[in-house]
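Appendix B: complex inputs.
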Amino acid sequence: MTAADPARQAQPAHSPSPGEVASRAAEVRRNWLLSTPALTLLFLAASGPLLVVILYSVLTPGEYSGVVWELSGDAWYRVILHRDIFDDTVSLADAHLRIFWRSAKLSLLTTFVALIIGFPTAYFVATRPPQQRTLWLFLITIPFWTNLLIRTFAIMEVIRNEGIVNSTLMSLGVIEAPIQLLYTDTAVLIGMVYVYLPLMVLPLYASMERLDFRLVEAAYDLYATRLQVLRRVIIPLVKPGIIAGSILVFIPSLGAYVTPRVLGGGKNMMLGNLIELQFGQGRNWPLGAALSLTLLVIVMIALLVYVRNVSRSESRG
Amino acid sequence: MQQQVSEGRVLIDSGKNSNDASLMIEAIGVSKIFGSGDSMITALDAVSIGIREGEFFTLLGPSGCGKTTLLRMIAGFEHPSSGAILLDGSDISELPPYKRPVNTVFQSYALFPHLTVAQNIAFGLQMLDRPKAEIAETVDRMLSMVKMEAMKDRLTSQISGGQQQRVALARALAPQPKVLLLDEPLSALDLKLRKEMQIELKRLQHETGITFVFVTHDQEEALTMSDRIAVMSEGHVLQVGSPHDIYERPANRFVAGFIGETNTLTAEVMSSTTDRISLRLGEGLELDAELPSGMTPKERVTLVVRPEHLRLSFGTTGSSLPGTVSNVVYLGTDTHYHVRLDSGDELVARVQNSSASDLQFGIGEAVAVAFEPSTVRVLRD
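Resulting structure:
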């Protein structure tokens, strides 16, 4: 009796009829059913593989490849530490750290250079008459029609010692001997900027297209010089595009594989190449898995730092 | 209209000295041509105009008459194709906007959405590198001048249209420009707010003493606010003068028709001297009118008479025009009588509704239309 009381009291305030309950339950069921394909895909393509990678990173490498089902922390240990095979002295894994550093440095540089080139490009497209913009956007996306590998080899042709850049400079007498561009970090940088530039331009364009250019006029009217208009009005207003573009360029740059492989030669490895090495010649899948997860963590840290900085500068105004 | 404009490249500056030393802005033969070849558009055709220091000057005209182009040239967003614009005696034609001591209140307000009300007002002062203390002091003064103190930390998207208007004004006035340009700033406001802002603008102009150049297509707004008005059409300035001049002494048919309601009549010229003209209208009505200076009349001229200057009476009297009432429009304070004259012309007479004169005319009634010769304006074309 006492237990039934609150239930009876609660009844009038909130009394769904049996039919209502049934229809709401049916709606919930239908919504779940409709999202099943997306959830399945998400699990199969993202969460599932990620779990496999996490699992492999704590197993023991098999003799020729694959893993032995035996728990081990060795792979994680070897991500940053190195044990000498002769005297067992432990030191930092210089080779790995250098590659981490090169990856971070080249990705940041790629993002920066893509922003420097992409910003005026997007501005140019956004200030064309509307009917011309589609054409310019179309032109920007044309490189996507060609396979990444082929585009990368094309860059190689351009910058190699006998390539068009060096031969032009030499015939003009600017340089006497060819500049070694290919197989350097610079080559990797050029290649990555070329490959990822559209990913910077498109989100930048999207936010610049929405920019009210009368605000630019208003700023000029209020004694702002060109540079001040850019700094005080345009950049703050297109910041969402800058953030989106930077993220879209930085993340794939960090894990780039083809570009550093082809243009950096064997020596200038980036994280992607290091990971590939462990699954291939290195035959150390757990280390490869641990390095993959390290990459994931670096990306997440970078994103967090970036987003926090941006929101702080925004609240500062 | 076309013909009138091509002939009408004349400036009637209500008889005052146009080489006045206190001219703040002077446009000398300014033309602006957009595009080229077949798609060439002449937005302004050799416009000359003088705006005095400290006056409320209005550029009035229908859309496409070139008033906004002229304003944008004073602001520096456009540069003249030929001619020159002087500010306080020095040529500013080629200066970029940020080097001119001129600020604009934009039609769309163009407030910076990423800045607060106070930051918007401070923007111009910051660009001019004024000391921080001075900026803070000026911003506070501007906020109180436009009564927006309570809103200073709001973003501009969080305030109403009328408030945005006030912020736009405060932002443009904060750097204390020599000239404030206003590009149809009231057009986005509703009627009540617009009336309030008209008074507010006059007050601000009076308080600051800054020269205001106001662009509008609303003739009533122009009449109520301006010290002087320039009426523009198709890239030409047709007449410059005080609201009274423009209304009572329109220079041509366009000005007469654009400012308020008007009646046009054609008259036969009987004789003329240098400043007087004798006219005959239809049968019987003869009158003497003032002849605009410099005009040599042909056999026929056009006259304008404002509806409030027409008097109606029953039957036909001596010096009047006979006609029939064709329509009656009651407007509260006045009644408009549409009269078809026996000569075929249509006139509108405005009669004030007062208990003293309860003269009422019905549709179809025969009436006589009369007016004082002094209220008649003879047009050049």
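The interface with chain A takes residues 75-77, 96-99, 102-104, 106, 108, 110-116, 119, 123-124, 127-128, 171-172, 175 of chain B (CB under 8 Å).
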